[in-house]
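Researcher: Can you fold this with pyridoxal-5'-phosphate in place?
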Amino acid sequence: MRSYEKSVALYETARRHLAGGVSSNVRYASVPVPLFFARGEGARLHDIDGNVHIDYVLGNGPAILGHAPPKVVEAVAASLAEGQVFAAQNPREAELAERLCALLPSSEVVRFTSSGTEAVLMAMRLARAFTGRDRILKFEGHYHGWSDQAFISARPPLNEAGPADAPVPVAGSPGMPASVLGDVAVCGWNDLDLLAAALERHRGEIAAVIMEPVMVNGGAIEPAPGFLDGARKLAHEHGALFILDEVITGFRAGLRGAQGRYGVAADLSIYAKAVAAGFPLALVGGRADVMNTLLDRGVMHGGTYNGNVQSMAAALAALDILAAGDGAAYRDLEARGKELMEGLQALAKKHRLPIVVQGLPAIFQTFFTSGPGPRNYRESAACDRDAMLAFHAALQEEGVRAQQAGKWFLSTAHDRPVIEETLAAADRAMAKLVRH
Ligand SMILES: Cc1ncc(COP(=O)(O)O)c(C=O)c1O
């Protein structure tokens, strides 16, 4: 048995002065307590008890190049003595913006923020200002950050969520004013008929339709063929903007994100996480006529740390690696991820465990279900969460760290030996699950 004695003791101490012992509620999802890590290197994390974990959480997505990628670390280290924030521009912002606009499918202009939550808020404000409408249409199971305006029906309890064909908006947290629910409409995902009906119910009211192009937070579910383009067309028919939240899929589903992968273009897009390989950076990119309302119409967006020197240096260095050979790194990532997904699926079959492995090679999920893989939030929520928790714990005991919900993020540091080591560990973990 691995020991987590030091993490348990430090967690008890930390809780005295750090609320809940963590800096983000999602970090409670850990056994036996939220673990403390001393350092990360490549595909591995070292906890303070000396346990080594092959890490498939990767900070929930940012560490696309693994932990402490040397070229990014060097670039950031070299920038440190230049300063951090100037309440003014630094030349790297212009360089990064130009490179991103040349690369990303539908971004003519970008604006930087420090977190995905803030970037979503900016995109929603831009859409409201541009269209003169207040209501945002979002999808059940899609997470767009923890703000009052966006943390609605992200993972609603099904007894509160209303009928599947016309869900009611559910606030995700105590402390959210009930009034915010009046500014959203919630729809089941991956079904154009449901979307058409929801737009019809709110004809003339919707400023934007926003979604994760692959529903990662609600279950690593790909869009049905034609869904993204159909949703874009429906949004436009109703005078609404089409916003894709690529906070996870950006620089992960491929060099050009989900939009490159599925051949669709949003009016506004949100990127974060992998774009700066672990440093705090997010951005909104999009049509120049919408983005430039920041200037032309005085749409307000601020943020002390926006465009800070180190995040810019990190993103430029990461982009050098990710964009080399027009995304050669992604071809490797895709091959390794496929190997891991197929390997896990084969092991589940060998051990006769009802596991479905589903998603993209660089971000997928293991579901416990005897049926087919889920296609929307409600089907994902119906999968066996207790069995997944047991699998998570068994994997951790074997030195593999996946998310408790069963999400697996991949990095370029997960090379073939790491994948083989992972599959051997998963084999032992599944054998243990079957025994217990
Ligand atoms: C799709 C999506 N949008 C927005 C966010 C919020 O980003 P942040 O945690 O940087 O505020 C997240 C975070 O996981 C996300 O997955």
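Model: Folded with pyridoxal-5'-phosphate in place. The longest strand covers residues 206-211.
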